[in-house]
Amino acid sequence: MAAQPTGPPAAERDADRTREEILAVATREFADKGYDGARVDEIAAKMSTTKRMLYYYFGGKERLYIAVLERAYTVIRSLEQQLDVEHLDPEEAIRQLAELTFDHHESHPDFIRLVSIENIHRAEHIARSDTLSGLANPALDVLTRILERGRAAGVFRPDADPLDVHMMISAFCVFRTANRHTFNAIFRRDMLDPTRRAHYRAMLGELVLSYLRPH
Amino acid sequence: MAAQPTGPPAAERDADRTREEILAVATREFADKGYDGARVDEIAAKMSTTKRMLYYYFGGKERLYIAVLERAYTVIRSLEQQLDVEHLDPEEAIRQLAELTFDHHESHPDFIRLVSIENIHRAEHIARSDTLSGLANPALDVLTRILERGRAAGVFRPDADPLDVHMMISAFCVFRTANRHTFNAIFRRDMLDPTRRAHYRAMLGELVLSYLRPH
DNA sequence: CCTAGAATGTACGAACTAGTTAGTTATACG
DNA sequence: CGTATAACTAACTAGTTCGTACATTCTAGG
What we know:
The structure is a homodimer of 215-residue chains.
Chain A: H1 15-33, H2 40-46, H3 51-58, H4 61-80, H5 90-106, H6 109-120, H7 124-128, H8 130-133, H9 138-153, H10 162-178, H11 180-187, H12 194-212
The structure holds a DNA duplex (30 and 30 nucleotides).
């Protein structure tokens, strides 16, 4: 139901383009203000079409929000699929995986905010989405294989669980971006200050590796 | 302006009691629904007095929310002040500090939610509160002293920064509670499941200590 | 006992907000 | 060329939400 069969794409009356624009504006607005803070009229005002189209294509505020979440997760997952660290030795692979995750979180603040917002709502919208509720994570598969190789080589402790390690990495990266505001307000240190970036990036790698090494 | 001078405390017409009840109900409501999701009328309905009192004592929704934040932080800080781990050797002190922080986060889910909510709002309310914006953290002082002792004894690496270590611990604990819903929706693992509690608690201690030990 | 002022309750309204109704224009296709 | 239908627009509405005006009751101090 997409893809113009012949001729150049019409500048006006392009359903796909309209849908995409609504999603893009809505993503920014929901990430910025939260689900309850976002205003349908505000989203409408910021796009080149009207509010009616938002209801035409998505059916309502909540379903638009779910569509936003679905697209955001899809984008992130497709990026994760490009991970290519399996040719490295286990230690270096872990370090790279951690640092790529680190970079990743830093360059997608909207996604992190959407996840925080969704947690405030106890993931009720994710639960309502078939697309999202059981969505596998390619980064976790990569991590699982690295751990196995490291265990076999005797450089990693044998009891390390992939999901636990993934959680450690996520916790560090998510906290750094998601909690930066209160952290900065209380401790007067901006965790996202560019001058501290290299320090935190290296620290995460060390943290994970020092945990993984057999004692 | 409190403390009845003579006679038994009046069951009705007790300004302090009314204030406290409003704060308690508002805390639950804001933590549950977020700032924009919370409804003034809903808070009013759940308390034994009327909405008028909320405006009489706090002036409005936003100022009530700030008062809620101030009280929540104050409570947490006073609990932190009771930390008593300085008599232990550095390694054991760190482990205990981490585990107490862990317990702490688990037993104050409302506080964690309020912090997440405040981060969605980029800490704008904390910034507006004189009480909160520069509030020192007793746990950080304790941590600083432990690290110093450990460094002197040669059991900790010399370049470990107290605030970084505090951040590591917080990241782990906050992520486990604040992001449990999306994590569970995606990975089908409840990080707060009681049967996994001991595992995570021990893991945090190991994580921090393996990072701190000189390599 | 009386009064000033603090504390409380009721009822209401102005502004906002999600969603809809009713109608219009462009485009694909025979 | 004509028409069915997808894409689109503007104006409106029903319900909500924060906040307030006004009336009332309790309590401390003289």
